[in-house]
Task: inverse folding
């Protein structure tokens, strides 16, 4: 059994930033990610990020990942990185089981930061198991990591920022986006992203959903249908499109199975994307020295995942006895950055969700 | 409608333009209508002409006395919501962001497109610039007929 004071699970922006702050405070850690490359969602993002320039807005996601990796890479004596390693078990005595190169390894930790991100929600419709139907994450991996087009004519389901941004990336790759459908009456994501699609000719259909996919071996056609104000299908409004791919982007849900396994108190909060751990204002769960940050504590943005990661790294190290020389100043700064990011109308959902979670505004 | 279809109304568009008299010199026009947590436009402007203020969710405001029309904010905005506009005798000159391939080439004539994605006329490509600082977003300078001042938003290659 390996012994390590601090173990960080998940090497997306939240985990990377937690590792960096721990190292700055002089705390060593193991950072574990199941992918061959660290960076989480960021390595699939070819678009310029919105957000504050403090959290690298205007930089493309993939380049933000490089920056965060370089930050962590400058502490090789403190941060040990395990790639291609999946955490499969977490036990109340803080023992972690990791599957790495077909071997099971055990780590005894004193503190654990869970930064496992999110998984995609699925959508039920007739024939939704036909080949050619992808989640947005899979489409991005195909296109932006492997350089493969998922199809030539695609329909996008979901108008949140992910649906809007992935549609644009598909068009950049030369894929025709025949329509973007959204069940609610209004576009969910930022209108600047929607306007980009519209000006290049993509029709955006709100109050509309997918009825069924048609095809023998793979998707050949898709049928959409309009919805009334009570989200009931309006007969006679079906429309058929010829497509060879369907992309589903109907939201994310926090990946928290490890936290449930260890017995953390969990709550279902729809504003945060589903089942999330209850935390105090230091990002600590109901179990002492088990922390959570980033999308796994509630679906937000990379900008907030970065700041939450910094904050959690600082706090976890401090509790282990390694207090950052600028601890108080940094905690204040990170908390006000989070507050600022969540201030506007798009942050209202997050604010409400956090309130339901237990009143800690910076969870 | 912006909320349902993704394109701004005429009122929204004209509210974002300065008076035509001011446009004898190139000025930034920012079509960012929503309170979103975003600010690269303001932090990128070398002349401090764009203000968002303390709350990052505020809508950006342009100070036309300070704006030189340089176009740096145009390729810094992740929402591609900014263009530079300059009114000439019978034409309007725009600087727009462009992120598709192939890129236009100087002196080519492309289609002029409105916010709904409809072709409204022709756009003469005057200049295409792309340097490292622009990070893969090209800045394209085009001339279109003056009547399209509030309609033109982007270009499309004849298919
Ligand atoms: C299309 C798209 C566009 C986006 N655009 C923007 C934007 O413009 N601006 C913005 O601020 N945000 C944007 N985001 C959101 C942003 O990418 C996420 O909020 C952010 O990546 C969350 O960071 P995270 O570290 O919490 O999780 P992730 O980035 O998801 O990282 C989690 C990591 O944990 C690893 N992991 C999970 N489980 C295990 C396990 N059991 N063992 C080991 N490792 C594990 C995963 O492999 C992954 O690397 C976008 C997201 C998408 C999908
Ligand atoms: S065009 Fe140049 S000067 Fe004008 S607002 Fe944009 S960056 Fe500033
Ligand atoms: S950078 Fe673009 S999207 Fe962001 S606030 Fe400025 S104008 Fe709006």
Result:
């Amino acid at each position: 059994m390996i012994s390590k004071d601090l173990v960080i699970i998940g090497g997306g922006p939240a985990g990377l930033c937690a590792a960096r702050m721990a190292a700055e405070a002089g705390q060593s850690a193991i950072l574990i990610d199941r992918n061959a490359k660290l960076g989480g969602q960021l390595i699939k993002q070819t678009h310029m990020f919105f957000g504050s320039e403090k959290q690298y807005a205007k930089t493309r996601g993939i380049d933000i990942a490089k920056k965060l990796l370089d930050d962590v890479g400058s502490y090789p004596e403190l941060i040990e990185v395990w790639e291609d390693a999946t955490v499969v078990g977490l036990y109340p005595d803080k023992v972690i089981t990791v599957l790495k190169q077909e071997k099971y390894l055990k780590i005894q930790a004193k503190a654990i930061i869970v930064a496992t991100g999110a998984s995609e929600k699925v959508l039920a419709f007739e024939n939704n198991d036909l080949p050619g139907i992808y989640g947005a994450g899979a489409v991005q991996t195909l296109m932006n990591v492997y350089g493969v087009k998922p199809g030539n004519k695609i329909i996008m389901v979901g108008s949140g920022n992910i649906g809007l941004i992935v549609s644009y990336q598909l068009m950049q790759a030369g894929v025709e986006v025949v329509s973007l459908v959204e069940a609610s009456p209004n576009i969910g994501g930022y209108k600047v992203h929607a306007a980009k699609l519209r000006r290049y000719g993509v029709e955006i259909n709100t109050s509309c959903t997918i009825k069924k996919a048609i095809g023998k071996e793979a998707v050949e056609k898709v049928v959409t249908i309009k919805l009334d104000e009570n989200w009931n299908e309006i007969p006679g409004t079906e429309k058929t499109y010829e497509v060879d791919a369907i992309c589903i982007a109907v939201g994310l849900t926090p990946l928290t199975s490890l936290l449930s396994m260890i017995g953390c108190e969990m709550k279902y909060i729809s504003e945060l994307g589903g089942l999330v751990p209850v935390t105090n204002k230091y990002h600590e769960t109901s179990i002492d020295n088990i922390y959570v940050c980033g999308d796994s504590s509630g679906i937000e943005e990379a900008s907030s995942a970065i700041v939450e990661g910094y904050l959690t790294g600082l706090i976890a190290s401090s509790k282990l006895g390694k207090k950052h020389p600028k601890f108080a100043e940094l905690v204040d700064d990170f908390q006000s950055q989070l507050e600022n990011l969540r201030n506007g109308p798009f942050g209202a959902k997050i604010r409400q969700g956090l309130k339901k979670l237990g009143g800690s505004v910076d969870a | 409608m912006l909320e349902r279809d993704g394109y701004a109304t005429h009122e929204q568009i004209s509210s974002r333009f300065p008076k035509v008299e001011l446009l004898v010199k190139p000025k930034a026009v920012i079509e960012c209508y929503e309170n979103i947590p975003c600010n690269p436009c303001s932090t990128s402007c070398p002349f401090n002409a764009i203000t968002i203020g303390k709350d990052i969710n505020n809508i950006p405001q342009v100070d036309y006395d300070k704006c030189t029309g340089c176009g740096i904010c145009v390729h810094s905005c992740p929402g591609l919501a900014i263009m530079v506009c300059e009114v000439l005798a019978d034409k309007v000159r725009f600087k727009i962001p462009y992120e598709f391939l192939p890129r236009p080439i100087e002196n080519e004539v492309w289609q002029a497109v409105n916010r709904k994605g409809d072709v409204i006329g022709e756009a003469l490509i005057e200049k295409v610039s792309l340097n490292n600082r622009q990070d893969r977003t090209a800045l394209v300078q085009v001339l279109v007929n003056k009547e399209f001042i509030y309609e033109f938003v982007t270009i499309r290659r004849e298919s």
